């Protein structure tokens, strides 16, 4: 039997086969030719650098300008800001006395007791908030939110980079980055000292690293030696530094909120499945068993062990002190930490207390009950008798609903592909896996008190789905000219309207004082009030 791929056979049989192909982030030959013809090579290179720079700067302006407003603890900042300062001061979360919120505003004697407090989220996100507070002090509201704002800007850049790798297109990547940069939910959660924006950053960082691992590893898995054109098991790869990096990033996500575990499991499973499919394409005889029982345990070690190390490291302050809640439950600190985690799990499973802004996960795609983060009535500063200032976590409605529709379309394409009735771009799988990790698990807890703002972790995957779908609407190079012109006009009009809607909503995302009637215009559904 002969191997029809002469480029692989051209290497001498004795030449060593590298475990990983060399990393090459240069543009493809088609991209170089296109840029040379349309723009010239220098312009093409400049745009590839200029586009992410402009989008990142836009995201920074929308998230950092007037970051200290409102100068008071908004919504659940009352928990995380105080816990962050307690970590910075004691190394663990202490107990706060009465009037603690007011003390933060005036920098009175902070009523912090060294007695440990039962806290239900891991420490890493609060440590990052504390880093910002260490710069300006506990009364500086910019310091409270600095970490979440910077990581929110970073999430926009990561989304651009992921879209660039998935699509191979600067235009598609720019659309994805722009949509996330101007989305209200992402802006609000970047300007508020909550954990979910930090969680989203580490999730997207882990996704980028998994994507790079796939780009490097799958070609190696599919490469076959001349002597064994149909190997029984295929290679087992240990040298996968980007998978280790993904484990570190996803472990950091778990160390911010436990919901990061869902992403760790989902993308870990994705790695195993794509390993199996790569071995199948390479002609490996026992490709399912090879992927699950040979490469699978290796991938588990490379991904999960670093995640576990990072997670444990985030508890260092609690482990090396004695004042934390439950720290003395057992002489062995790891056993005491295990008992603490059992208590946290019982809390999360049994959390069914009512809340006016609670929203079960089945409501999230419909956007029925966004969370009001901060509200202040003001009758003097906007020029009318009745003014109001609001920070509402309403996403840009067009981005949200169009993103949900795009995700449904990608599921439809996947189903048709599985039924043998259509094609499925491998890029489509990434937003679907991400949405499965950030939304589907919450459906399993219909009675638990949860909130619409948790969907900030879904937003990057929704804009990825939307950007890839808009590319389908705009048409491909082989489509008829009139088809592409009509599609590109449709996409252009949609983007212009989306930008206008974000400009319309920006005052209620940032707490500007506006006339009451103007605020009412933003409440398109009854549950948005």
Main features:
mainly alpha; two-stranded antiparallel sheet; 21 helices; 60% helix; globular
Brief rundown of the structure:
This protein is 60% helix and 5% strand. With 529 residues, the protein is mainly alpha-helical. The chain is globular, with a radius of gyration of 25 Å.
Could you explain how this protein is built, in words?
The protein is mainly alpha-helical and about 525 residues long. It has a domain at about 195-315. About 60% of the residues lie in helices and about 5% in strands. It has helices at about 5-10, 30-40, 40-65, 75-90, 100-105, 125-135, 140-165, 170-180, 185-190, 195-220, 240-255, 260-280, 285-315, 315-320, 335-350, 395-420, 430-440, 440-445, 460-475, 480-510, 515-520; strands spanning about 95, 110-115, 370-380, 385-390, 515. The strands form 2 sheets. The chain has a 3-stranded antiparallel sheet with strand order 3-4-5. The chain has a two-stranded antiparallel sheet with strand order 1-2. Strand 3 and strand 4 (about 385-390) form a beta hairpin. The chain is globular, with a radius of gyration of 25 Å.
Which helices and strands, and how do they pair?
Elements lengths: L5 H4 L19 H10 L2 H24 L12 H14 L3 E3 L3 H7 L5 E5 L7 H13 L4 H27 L2 H12 L2 H7 L5 H27 L18 H14 L5 H22 L5 H28 L1 H5 L12 H17 L22 E7 L8 E6 L4 H22 L10 H10 L1 H4 L15 H16 L6 H29 L3 E3 H5 L9
Antiparallel strand pairs: 1-2, 3-4, 4-5
Helix pairs in contact: 2-3, 3-7, 3-8, 4-6, 6-7, 7-8, 7-9, 7-10, 7-19, 8-19, 9-20, 10-11, 10-12, 11-12, 11-13, 12-13, 12-17, 16-17, 16-19, 17-19, 19-20
């Amino acid at each position: 039997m002969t191997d029809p791929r002469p480029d692989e056979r051209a290497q001498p049989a004795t030449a060593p086969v590298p475990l990983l192909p060399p990393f090459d982030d240069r543009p493809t030959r088609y991209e170089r030719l296109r840029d040379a013809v349309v723009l010239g090579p220098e312009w093409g290179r400049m745009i590839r650098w200029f586009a992410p720079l402009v989008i990142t700067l836009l995201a920074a302006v929308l998230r950092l300008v007037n970051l200290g407003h409102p100068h008071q603890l908004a919504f659940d900042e009352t928990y995380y800001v105080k816990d962050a300062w307690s970590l910075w001061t004691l190394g663990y979360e202490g107990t706060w006395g009465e009037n603690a919120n007011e003390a933060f505003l005036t920098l009175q004697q902070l009523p912090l007791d060294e007695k440990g407090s039962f806290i239900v989220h891991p420490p890493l996100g609060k440590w990052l908030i504390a880093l910002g507070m260490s710069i300006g002090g506990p009364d500086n509201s910019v310091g409270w939110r600095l970490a979440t704002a910077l990581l929110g800007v970073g999430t926009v850049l990561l989304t651009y980079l992921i879209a660039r790798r998935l699509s191979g297109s600067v235009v598609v990547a720019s659309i994805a980055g722009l949509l996330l940069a101007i989305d209200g939910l992402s802006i609000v959660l970047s300007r508020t000292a909550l954990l979910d924006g930090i969680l989203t950053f580490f999730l997207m960082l882990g996704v980028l690293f998994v994507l790079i691992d796939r780009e490097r590893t799958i070609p190696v898995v599919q490469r076959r030696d001349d002597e064994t054109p149909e190997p029984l098991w295929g290679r087992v790869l240990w040298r996968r530094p980007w998978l280790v990096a993904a484990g570190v990033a996803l472990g950091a996500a778990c160390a911010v909120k436990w919901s990061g575990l869902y992403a760790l499991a989902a993308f870990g499973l994705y790695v195993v499945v794509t390993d199996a499919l790569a071995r199948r394409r390479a002609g490996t005889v026992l490709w399912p068993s090879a992927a699950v029982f040979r490469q699978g345990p290796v991938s588990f070690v490379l991904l999960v062990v670093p995640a576990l190390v990072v997670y444990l490291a985030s508890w260092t302050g609690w482990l090396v002190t004695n004042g934390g809640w439950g720290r003395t439950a057992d002489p062995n600190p790891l056993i005491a930490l295990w008992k603490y985690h059992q208590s946290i799990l019982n809390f999360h499973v049994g959390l069914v207390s009512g809340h006016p802004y609670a929203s079960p996960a089945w409501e999230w795609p419909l956007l029925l009950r966004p969370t009001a983060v901060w509200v202040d009535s003001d009758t003097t500063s906007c020029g009318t008798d009745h003014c109001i200032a609001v920070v509402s976590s309403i996403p840009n409605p067009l981005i949200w609903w169009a993103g949900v529709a795009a995700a449904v379309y990608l599921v439809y394409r996947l189903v048709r592909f599985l039924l043998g009735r259509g094609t499925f771009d491998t890029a489509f799988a990434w937003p679907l896996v991400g949405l499965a990790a950030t939304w589907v698990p919450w459906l399993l807890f219909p009675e638990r008190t949860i909130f619409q703002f948790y969907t900030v972790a879904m937003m990057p995957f929704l804009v990825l789905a939307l950007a890839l779908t808009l590319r389908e609407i705009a048409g491909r190079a082989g489509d008829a000219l009139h088809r592409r012109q009509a599609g590109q006009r449709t996409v252009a009009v949609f983007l212009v309207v989306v930008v206008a809607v974000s400009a319309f909503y920006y005052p209620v995302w940032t707490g500007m004082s506006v006339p009451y009637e103007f605020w009412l215009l933003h409440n398109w559904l009854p549950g948005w009030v």
